[in-house]
Amino acid sequence: MERAARFDSAALAELYDRHSPLALALARRMLGPTRAEDAVQEAFTSIWRNAATYDPERGFVRTWLLRIVRYRSIDILRSIAVEDRRALDAEHERAEPQDPPSGALIRRDRATEIREALAALPAEQRQVVELAYFGGWTQVEIAAQLDLPVGTVKSRARLALSKLRAQLNPSMDTAE
Amino acid sequence: MTGHEQTGDDAAAWVLGMLPAAEAQEFERHLATCSECLEEVRRLDGVTDALALSPPAAPSSSELRHRLLAGTESETALFRAAEGRGPIETPVRRRRPGAAVLAGLAALMLLGAGVLVGRVIPSDDPASRASTVIGMVTPAGGGADARAAVLLRGQTGQLVLTGLAAPPAGRVYQAWVVRSDRTVPTGALFSVPRSGDTKVSLPSLAGVRRVIVTAEGPRGSHTPTPPAIAAVVLPR
């Protein structure tokens, strides 16, 4: 990152080579394949442009990058038609059936562990988390879509995050 | 439900980014004074960071890598080209603020004609003095004939653009001021008239190192996203 702060293209290339698969995965999950690359390019450009402000004590580069990918993806989502956004949500529901975690004693990678924790949530809680986190919908929009009071949506979100936290502890850090 | 159960729900909604803007700002004000809610946010924040890792990894893209590096190299070249263009001081009478803009446009026109603009002896009265700082525009982004300058008057200024090409379809230009620690939007979203000439009022320029222009989505952005198409490096 210090090299990136000096506008070093090689440093940016290294950063891209290391983190682009995760960045693209998140953007594709949120935006689908055709719009994902725009969000990822914008996120890496933002990191490069603001490298001088990076504070290692405030978190990992990967966390910083993925947050920017998500913010950019939400900006893009909120600029496209509601029907297209709903189609993305529906496409994801069809593409990734949520299997409950197996009890097999296998060493799982971090992504698998998190997917399994998500899958283990009650469906109504998982739905709220996915619509908010990956879909970029506000609580009011989620309440309208699910025909629920806003308070219920928020309660489900809190319960879901608390359960995920308990499930993923003690490996809550996202060490690179 | 108690007040803190309510704000506990707000904490979860906030870390998920699903609070509407006004409620998010209200919650952020509350966070500044409530250690209990701050602790709840910290407890849940790591969960949302973990969610970012859950999608199955996607293959990298060499085309995207190429586009990314080409874009940042273009911006670096733009900034380097804009460096070292010192201000041209231009005396302007206090009662004719429009004259300052005209002076900036005149400087740009002379530059466009290939004429080297020299320093004009400033007025004795600092309040009546203006400086024009010539910047750079990328031919690919803003057009081969485009010119940019910032007209400084004390701590305020105007970005003056001439011959600028229209932004790409579905995009608008957005002007930014770059300070040492952050880049902030000026609030100016603009297209250009057929002439390509336009002016953008800038906020206080105290501590500003550069003024840049990007082509953003139709509603603008909170942070500059594509590489800059114009840059003016201000004197320290």
Structure commentary:
The complex is a heterodimer of chains A (176) and B (236). Chain A is globular, with a radius of gyration of 18 Å. Chain A has 176 residues and is mostly helical. In chain A, helix 2 packs antiparallel against helix 3 (33-49) and helix 2 packs across helix 4. Chain A contains 9 helices and no strands. Chain B has 236 residues and is α+β, with helices and mostly antiparallel strands. Helices cover 35% and strands 26% of the residues of chain B. Chain B contains 6 helices and 10 strands, in the order H-H-H-H-E-H-E-E-H-E-E-E-E-E-E-E. Chain B has helices spanning 3-15, 21-31, 35-51, 62-82, 97-112, 139-142, and strands spanning 87-91, 129-134, 136-137, 147-153, 156-162, 172-179, 183-190, 198-202, 208-216, 230-233. The longest helix of chain B is centred in the first third of the chain and has 21 residues, at 62-82. The N and C termini of chain B lie far apart (55 Å). Residues 91-97 and 112-125 of chain B have low confidence and may be disordered. The chains are: A mainly alpha (176), B alpha+beta (236). At the A-B interface, helix 2, helix 3, helix 4, helix 6 and helix 7 of A face helix 1, helix 3 and helix 4 of B.
Summarize the structure.
The complex is a heterodimer of chains A (176) and B (236). Chain A is mainly α and 176 residues long.
Beta-strand residue fraction of chain A: under 5%
Ends apart, CA distance between termini of chain B: 55 Å
Strand fraction of chain B equals 25-35%
Describe the strand arrangement of the main beta sheet of chain B, using strand numbers.
1-2-4-5-8
Average of pLDDT of chain B: 80
Descriptive tags:
heterodimer, A: 176 residues, mainly alpha, 70% helix, globular, B: 236 residues, alpha+beta, 5-stranded antiparallel β-sheet, 10 strands
